Amino acid sequence: MITTQQAQTLAGTTVHGSDGAKIGKVGQVYLDDASGSVEWVTVHTGLFGTKEHFVPVADATTSGDGLSVPFTADQVKNAPSIDAEGHLDPQEEEALYRHYSLDYATTGTTGTAGTAGYADTDTRGTAGYADTDARGTVGHDTSGPTTDDAMTLSEERLDVGTERREAGRARLRKYVVTEQQTVQVPVSREEVRLEREPITDANRGAALSGPDLSSEEHEVILTEERPVIATETVPVERVRLDKETVTDTETVTAQTRHEEVELDDAGTTTRGTTAGTDRDRDVL
Fold first, then answer.
1. What is the pLDDT of residue 12?
2. pTM score > 0.85 for this model?
3. Which positions ≥6 away from 11 have C-beta within 8 Å?
4. Which end of the chain has fewer CB atoms at under 10 Å, N or C?
């Protein structure tokens, strides 16, 4: 059972499911009209926490890292969609109990949503009645027991992060290409050439060594070069894949809520927003 003292610290804490998985963050605390005990909390889910779901806390427990409920994340996210602003109707409450497989007949009714840990003590539904409670504070807090003479206004702010996912794959592959190459190759060959020399004292002996008249043949072998083609494989370069990170800027848009105060004084209504806040923000 969550006490009202514990409920005062629940807003904004993390809610974990029965399997230990993170479901979202606590938004508002709902109290029982009759007993003032904590009966429901709303949980912000979704990428930017824009969805809000009711979760019963009768069997919930608190710990250093937040609130643990005996339900799965799917059970919470699939709960009936109910406007979290205001008072739970009996029909809405009964639908929620059916969804979580709880016995509605043994439960009470739920009070107006207010500050965490405050029990409903007045059913008029409007803050600011000019009465004084036992503590001597002017006014009566209809969303819980009187605390001080001020009302706290809150607002939602975007908590934007990033997640890394696979965007594509690159593969390096090599294949064989056949191409025609033309190379100029110098070649040489032998040709026959007839040389004549006169009879001199130096060659006279060779000239007169044979018969005076005869028929003879003299043969010379001629050679030539022809191109010979062969191939060899040699490494020419190395290629590898590498990655680099490129940073871009994207603009995201989401809805946020804030609280405004309205003063109803003798038929004159004055409205205002949370003090000191800039309503226009750029989200990167």
1. 85
2. no
3. 26, 27, 28, 29, 116
4. C
